[in-house]
Design goal:
Rossmann fold; 5 helices; 7 strands; globular
């Protein structure tokens, strides 16, 4: 069994439009020691991607029929690592557009998702 990453002192932006999924991911992140800032709509997520001080992000690709690409673009401009947690994106297409990101296809084990995020978060 792989141990959970320590995300103590790390702030994570979570962009997810499905409330129950967001709650489950947030709980797992908090258990790993992270502070979580959540957004469920594209407009809110875009604003946070420009302003919030975070160490990494988890992005759902489809937010109520809109892609989270503008959020990913802002995070990339700011040098903030992120991963996509999506049931809609094609891994190869996402990796072509964002070569330095990870893609976790839904459904996936939330512990695995958090471990993947831990690979992206800079060491303290």
């Amino acid at each position: 069994m792989t141990s959970k990453p320590s995300l103590a002192g790390r702030q994570i932006l979570l962009v997810e439009d499905e409330f129950m999924i967001a709650m489950d991911i947030e709980a797992e992140l908090v258990e790993a020691g992270a502070q979580v800032v959540c957004a469920g709509r594209l407009e809110e997520a875009e604003k946070l991607a420009q302003t919030v001080s975070c160490h990494a992000a988890i992005l759902d690709l489809d937010l109520h029929g809109k892609t989270s690409f503008p959020v990913a673009d802002r995070l990339e401009e700011r040098g903030i690592p992120f991963l996509f947690h999506t049931g809609h994106g094609v891994r190869e297409n996402l990796k072509t557009r964002y070569p330095h990101t990870l893609v976790c296809n839904k459904p996936c084990d939330i512990s695995d998702l958090v471990r993947s995020l831990g690979e992206l978060v800079p060491a303290s």
